[in-house]
Specification:
single chain, 336 residues, alpha/beta, 7-stranded parallel sheet, globular, binds ligand LZY4JE5M, binds NADPH dihydro-nicotinamide-adenine-dinucleotide phosphate, 2,4-dienoyl-CoA reductase [(3E)-enoyl-CoA-producing], mitochondrial, NAD(P)-bd_dom_sf
């Protein structure tokens, strides 16, 4: 490599390192000033990892989980399979799906099928549903979990970046839901539909604008269909997860790891969620124990949303001694 290129490549690596260092130090400063050591309250909220519903709750039921090969979708598949469901997992990477399917089947003894499908392509979705009908018949449970996302200042987004995320999240969910919905209606078969969105679907969020817009669209889609398709025996619900460590999410939303501590600090339960916890909730919502639940939007975030929203929540960092002073000052005030 010529000297000038070698030098500029070393400089680039140094700049990356420096950037991460500055981010880490700014986090250290941020947390050094808080009164209560962050995260200690997590001891009050230990995550339970076992399947919550009675065994056999999903016997003779078929469940489709999009994006079921990895992360949260994989955990939901494992729980449903453990509870007796025959699962179908669908996404783009067939090798990943097949590996997951084999691992879960061998643990639970219940068949997991892997079907390749890019949810952005309505024709591929239709062929995927043909394949599902041939394998298991139409599903009783549909979990729209597949998604794409990355952090990016909006002024840096290309039209194709916008289209890619909104196609996967909003159009993909719509294509899967409409294709299955129409066939279920034709066959007079009821079903539970669940969409996995996110807490910022409600608030919006900078730096993930295509995802926020598309997830908000998914919520409108599911609430609308809950009203319209109850007459066909279909329920529609939404889970908004807070942060749960998965490679897919964390590598694209916090690539340096610099924001994780700040994130945990603002969660009142003092920790991230776990895949098994959301899998239990998804199983409950999709089960007959929740047959009266439709149109629900369930926030599952350890309290992060309200923590971010409340104007005075930063006062958590005021120490008892500081409170004594503050209270004295406030009590001294007379009149307006
Ligand atoms: C305050 C700090 C907070 C820290 C947060 C930490 C943790 C998380 C907490 C909460 C999470 C909340 C919500 C999470 C929501 C999620 O959805 S997470 C799930 C994430 N999983 C995935 O994204 C998996 C699938 N993703 C992918 O396959 C790819 O990432 C992609 C979505 C890009 C799709 O792949 P592909 O179809 O191959 O697309 P391309 O690579 O061809 O790209 C298409 C266009 O997009 C542009 N692009 C790609 N990456 C970026 C980027 N990083 N920045 C800007 N633009 C990007 C690419 O250039 C293409 O556009 P052009 O053709 O070049 O114009
Ligand atoms: N982890 C977290 O903290 C949070 C996650 N969520 C949501 O949870 C869900 C799961 O995310 P998580 O498990 O973390 O991340 P993952 O990246 O592990 O999961 C995303 C899945 O979507 C699939 N997928 C992506 N694009 C397509 C496509 N075009 N067609 C079909 N499948 C596709 C991927 O499979 P493949 O690459 O094979 O196509 C992958 O299995 C998502 O809806 C996400 O928005 C919400 C809030 C917080």
């Amino acid at each position: 490599m010529p000297d000038t290129r070698k030098r500029s490549s070393i400089w680039l690596q140094f700049k990356d390192f420096f950037f991460v260092l500055v981010l880490s130090l700014s986090q250290f400063r941020l947390h050094g000033s808080t009164g209560l050591r962050s995260g200690s309250q997590a001891n009050f909220f230990p995550p339970l990892e076992d399947a919550m519903l009675p065994s056999g709750s999903f016997n003779n039921r078929m469940a489709l989980i999009t994006g079921g090969g990895t992360g949260l979708g994989r955990a939901m598949t494992a729980t449903l399979s453990q509870l007796g469901a025959q699962c179908i997992i669908a996404s783009r990477k067939l090798d990943v799906l097949q590996r997951t399917a084999e691992e879960i089947s061998s643990q639970t003894g219940n068949k997991v099928h892997a079907v390749q499908c890019d949810v952005r392509d309505p024709q591929a979705v239709s062929q995927c549903v043909d394949q599902i009908e041939a394998l298991t018949g139409l599903p009783d449970v549909i979990i729209n979990n597949a998604a794409g996302n990355f952090v990016c200042p909006s002024e840096r987004l290309s039209p194709n970046a916008w289209k890619t995320i909104t196609d996967i999240v909003l159009n993909g969910t719509a294509f899967v839901t409409l294709e299955l919905g129409k066939r279920l209606i034709q066959n007079q078969k009821g079903a539970s539909f669940l969409a996995i969105t996110t807490i910022y679907a409600e608030s919006g969020s900078g730096f993930v604008v295509p995802s926020a817009s598309a997830k908000a669209g998914v919520e409108a889609l599911y609430k609308s269909l809950a009203a319209e398709w109850g007459r066909y025996g279909h329920r529609f619900n939404i889970i908004q997860p807070g942060p749960i460590r998965t490679k897919g999410a964390f590598s694209r939303l916090d690539p340096t790891g610099a924001f994780e501590k700040a994130m945990i600090d603002r969660i009142p339960t003092g920790r991230l969620g776990t895949p098994a916890e959301i899998a239990n909730l998804a199983a409950y919502v999709s089960s007959n124990y929740a047959s009266w639940m439709s149109g629900a939007v369930i926030r599952f975030d350890g309290g992060e949303y309200v923590s971010l929203a409340g104007e005075f929540n930063e006062l958590r960092s005021v120490t008892p001694d500081q409170w004594k002073l503050l209270e004295a000052m406030i009590r001294k005030t007379k009149g307006s």
